[in-house]
Amino acid sequence: MKFSFSDVRLVDVTKKKSWVTYKIEFDEPFSYKEGTVPKRVHYPKIYGGEYQIRLGSAKTLKERKILGEDLLALVLEDLQEGKDPKRKTEIEVAKIAVEKEKTNNVSYDSAIENMIKYHRWDNPSETQELTAVNAINFFNNQFRLYVTEINKLDDITKITKDDIVFYIARHNNPQGKVYLYPVDGKTYKIRTWTISTCISKIQTINYIFMPLVDKNIIPISPTVGISNLRKKLKRTATQKIFVKRHQIWTEEELVEFHIKGNTDENRLFYNVGLCCYHAFIRRSEILRMRLGMVDLQNKRFVIPSSITKSDRKYDTVVHIYLKFNQKLHDALELYINQQFGKDLNPEYRLFPAPEGNNIKYTYEEFRKDNRSSLFKHLDSSKTPYSLKHTGVTEYWNRQIDKGIHPNVIISKLMKKCRHSNTNETIKYLELELGLDVASKYEDDEDDE
Q1: What CATH number labels 241-448?
Q2: How far apart are CA 372 and CA 100, in angstroms?
Q3: Beta pairing class for 300-304 and 294-295
Q4: For residue range 155-206, what is the model confidence (pLDDT) as tens digits?
């Protein structure tokens, strides 16, 4: 069906709900939906789903403008080629259905390989490394079980939207933290997910389907539109106050960590733990830090936003200053002297791999070396990253014992932990660390 078009434009890009619209006139009356009156002239709205673009998912106005311009260009290109974007999915489904009969099935393992190459996770950037590790582990160890259960390992193109909705909803079991289910004669434990985790897992699952859409193997990802599931999800036990998500080190474990970690052999791993414990450095940042980010004279870290998970908050790279105490100062000074000597190149990795001072330690290699050196001498099986949560917990308890008002403590922790707002800090303290924040406000009112 032939058509002419005009007035192609991007609408309301400053708002979260924005779209591309155009005027289109067909050579004969036409209706997009059954049951509606056919017309020759239409004014369609394209929100981006036809192109795997979601303008509403943008975190900042700048990002939304970029996505909007990309979507506008794609719509205009299709119109110029005689393709109506509003019918894009319909046409491609028919086309791909014919082509699919000529192609082999896409096995789960080959899909994972394609996903790794597509997202460049075989050689990820610093900011993508942790995402790559976590996503690959999820597909190998968790989602694989479900795909096995529904008998679609041989061809994941058969996975439907209903399959994924069922998978997400099952994890959102409000009856308990863990339940069991059998696969291939074995019984596996399934952990309950919070609503936010359910939504994030939908985004993770989409990683494996993106290459298939890009190569026209499937017309659209089965995850598209599932975010609306949020309204149907139920709050689970893990979202209630006082449920600790992170492990906290005991006093005895900390004493052993200091005794066995404070040695020449284990000084690198010991200092990684100390940075988490005293300065609340995040897991995603610790191995990205460089020597020039340590300011011993002023007892602080000077961290560029580009290596932090909050980088998207800023239009340009800014520097974040994190103060640290004398204990961490002395430990870092001793470590730096031992590790680097007089060669204090600011571009060296603060915690480098054994191959050289400018060689990046990957998360997997660090975990492996840490387990085989310092942590093999410890009775505790907790990770060095959990020392951050331990340090925050101790800071809260110390301040409360001193009689400091909860609002003051939360304000300080918001800055130390680099949260966006106090609500994020309260959620972290209550839901992640299991601290009884609410009752401290009640105690304060009782004193009055």
Answers
A1: 1.10.443.10
A2: 49
A3: antiparallel
A4: 999 999 999 988 888 887 655 555 565 656 666 666 677 777 888 888 899 9
